[in-house]
Design goal:
Elements lengths: L2 H12 L3 E6 L4 E6 L2 E6 L12 H5 L1 H10 L7 E5 L4 H8 L6 E5 L8 E5 L2 H11 L5 E6 L4 E8 L2 E9 L2 E3 L6 H8 L11 H9 L13 E3 L11 E4 L6 H13 L4 E8 L11 E7 L5 H4 L9 H17 L1
């Protein structure tokens, strides 16, 4: 069963609602609560109006365009297509400042991501090789900062998490490679010793054979991969008020009543005007299980709030 289904079904039943399996393979469920019935498939998608907004958050370039038009902080984004020739690709990529990141335009779950591309020739090579696998790619300027996921429902934030990538801590004696081996005796997966890892270590002044000074934290992954020792830390109550406003504005700009925003910033508690602050993506069908089961911090029953929100919307339509 999908991780979202594993938290959604018991949460609804604890509320006194009923869950009927409509299609187990696709994990489609009929929810019955307070005399209101509605269908979901593993995750909730709640738009703001009757128009189909699916493509606007499904494709990263469209999301970026919506945010840009509303004056919200998001990185410059260009769309790269299979029918673009090399000259087309070069002209588009010239609009960006390097280093850049290239992503599957419709990707999710950290798949189809190619970070820290340092020049246009490297970018052309990555794009041409991967347009064979993906219909469209987007390229964006690389933005640094701590990564957060903020869950917006209607006009408020109901959950916020810091997504912490896996790391090792120096002891002044062991090499990075030894530290990784020791750490990952207790993790589900082992970090690949590949070019991405070597580049990431190099950016931190380290290598697999180097010995970090005592207490120095060395990241071994760009993304918060839980299987390799990453963490999810609840920070809902710490979100700066202005950041809350911006997140709600971004959700509304995307025509969504439920949205998961991926944000990079230095400190979620500080004003966005006093730091680097960027909205990377808006997810129209956000994962909920991560809010129910953070690695550290308070679990949030966001499913309950979402179901109550849906029921109130249905009842208001009946009036």
């Amino acid at each position: 069963m999908d991780k979202n289904s594993e938290v959604i079904i018991p949460a609804i039943r604890e509320m006194g609602g009923e869950v009927e399996v409509v299609d187990s393979k696709r994990q489609a469920f009929l929810i019955k609560y307070k005399r209101v019935n509605f269908l979901i498939t593993r995750k909730f998608r709640i738009g703001m109006d009757f128009l189909d907004n699916n493509d606007f958050t499904r494709f990263k370039d469209l999301t970026a365009e919506l945010l840009f038009r509303k004056g919200l902080p998001t990185p410059k984004t260009v769309l790269l297509c299979r029918d673009d020739n090399e000259n087309d690709l070069r002209e588009k990529l010239k609009e960006l400042d390097f280093p850049i990141i290239v992503k599957d335009a419709a990707g999710s779950k950290s798949k189809g991501i190619f970070p820290d591309i340092k020049n246009i020739n490297e970018a052309i090579n990555v794009v041409t090789n991967n347009l064979k696998k993906f219909k469209r790619l987007v390229a964006q300027k690389m933005v640094s900062g701590r990564e957060f996921r903020v869950l917006v429902l209607g006009s408020k934030i109901i959950g916020a998490l810091e997504l912490v990538p896996p790391s090792v801590v120096g002891d002044g004696e062991s090499s990075v490679n030894q530290l990784i081996k020791e750490k990952q005796k207790m993790t589900k997966s082992e970090t690949e010793r590949n070019t991405n890892l070597k580049n990431l270590l190099g950016d931190q002044g380290e290598s697999l054979s180097s010995i970090p000074e005592k207490n120095k934290k060395v990241f071994i992954k760009n993304c918060p991969c839980l299987a390799e020792g990453g963490m999810i830390v609840d920070c809902t109550e710490k979100v700066n008020d202005k950041i809350r406003e911006i997140c709600v504005d971004a959700s509304m700009a995307s025509r969504l009543s439920l949205a998961g925003l991926d944000i990079l910033c230095d400190d979620i508690e500080k004003s966005p005007k006093k730091q680097n602050f960027t909205i990377i993506e808006v997810n129209g069908k956000p994962d909920l299980y991560i809010h129910h089961n953070p690695t550290n911090g308070k679990p949030r029953n966001v499913t309950k709030e979402i179901v109550e929100f849906i029921v109130e919307k249905f009842k208001s339509l009946e009036l």
